[in-house]
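Session log. Operator J.P. requested a structure for one protein chain; no other inputs attached. Running the standard single-chain path with token output.
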Amino acid sequence: MSSHSLPSSESLLTPAEVASMFRVDPKTVTRWAKSGKLSSIRTLGGHRRYRESEVRELLSTGTVEVDSPHHQGSQHHQASQHHQAS
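Structure written below.
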């Protein structure tokens, strides 16, 4: 989480807006922020906002792993079945 001062021209995005850009769930975006993959700014109400410039840079460089939550779930499910069969 970052508390750097923000240039007045910097656009901020909501978790839902970032999620739609990466085609992931908004909770995934929150996890990225908690893990330090993406810096966030907190509003006075405690909500996360993300710098549009940083988000677009991540989109162009592909430095954040983007996996579908459904895909991850099916992998976990298969792994659980395999573990039980052993």
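Operator note: The helical segments are 15-22, 26-35, 52-61, 69-85.
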